[in-house]
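Async update (no meeting this week)

Hi team, since we skipped the sync, here's where things stand on the single-chain job. The sequence we agreed to prioritize is pasted below, unchanged from the tracker. I ran it this morning and attached the output directly underneath so nobody has to dig for it. Comments welcome in thread, and please keep replies under the output.
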Amino acid sequence: MASMVFIHFGLANEESDQEMHDRVQLRSVTTATGFKQTIKDAPASISVVPKEEILTRPIRDLGDAVQNVPGVDASATKTGDTSISMRGLSSDYVLILIDGKRQNVNSGFHSNGFNGFMSGMIPPTSMIERIEVLRGPVSVVWGSDAMGGVINIITKKNPNKLTTNIMLETRIQEHNTNWQSDAQDRKYGSFGNMWGINAYLATPIVKDKLSLSVRGKYQDSGANLFFIPSSITPRNNNPYTTHSPTGYSAWTLGARLNYSPSAKNNFYLDGEFMNRVSGTLNTSSSNITAFNTNTKTNVILNHDGNYDWGKTTTYLQYMNIRRIPHASDVVVGADSGILNWRSMRENQNYVFDSKFHKKIFFDTAGLLAINGGVYYMYETYKNYADTRGLLTQHQAAAYAEGEYTFNEYVSTSLGLRYNYSNIYSGTPNPRFYVNVNPTSWWTIKAGIANGMKIPSITELGNGFLYQSTTTAYYGNPNLQAEKSWNYELSTIFDVNPGFLH
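Output:
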């Protein structure tokens, strides 16, 4: 059990009941197609975690935020981080976005159960506007890794007035006094407390033209001390059970400069650095205490255009993710070790993405919404303990989708994406959906969608991949993309004050 303390204060405007009613009834999403539309019109099964829920719960990581969404499973890893799976597919098949920008690390980046750290690398909760969760494949829009689903964290836009939020939170564990103790009077289990602070500040510099926002957060958690019973002889003099997290410390700093030269054009430059240290008191095989330091550097230059001939979103992104293990001679039960730079893993992504959206009205004959885009990513990966050296991959894709609304009762969408890589064959991804609205408050959706996941750059590299305690892994350049088909029939009841589906 845990007692939770949560404090939030800042400069903000109160929302009237009518404004809240309008916001709920007209709630829109962007993740299903890349552009804004209402939930009931989106060609996917989608849920939204609103900011009201985020701000009234102590959110440690992304898993805490989405754990109550149907079809989502958030489970703790041996380091205490959260691994998110959707519709039975593991975290390697769930694409995480922030404002539509890819955040996933190469799936070959992980080994020996040290996955899940990306769940903790999210913006401060005071900056999050909402979280959109799509269940099922959305590869036609987002490409690889979107086979199980997509989680898109939407952040606040820079306002035209000074805005600030500061949040303090703590999670104080209530230990069960009925748990049996051993001869040394140690409880067989106790959970570590957690505390944190995060802040967001935005201010205009030139009215309606130039604005700046800064954000930051810090979190610290104690270890979960799960001792083996005294009747069992510990291996390697390690008294802890497996999956006993060491606790973690994490901090984030970021800033965004927003420039709007005209009503039709908006630019922003966003930079962020994250650092997270976590580990396990007892690995499952070696029976040692192990730590990793994970860092993420993310820089984005984005342009949004709103023209008579259509809307566009184009961006350049650079992302660098590092995993630096601590030396293997960490003292059992310690809270840190010495960084082992010779075993560092580094994944770098260079991304160009451009999307286009246009609505064409045919008077009484309906409405056609056209979405399309191109995507390119140059990816590098290096394991400094791997003799294969630097691994590289080029990926490119183009997609188009049309959504035709016949009338207020029926709409349909059809889309196709083609993916190319220089080291595996091309892969198409189609999607077809039909939405029927018998009434203004009832929607029926039926569709079929294809998902895919390309082999990771490490899995495609020829030769030795990595060595776990008991198994050696090797790459295979002849691997092909994994594919899935999703057949869906769902319904939504849009009834005040919210959605039931």
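Quick observations from my side:
The longest helix spans residues 17-25.
The longest strand covers residues 245-262.
Reply here if anything looks off.
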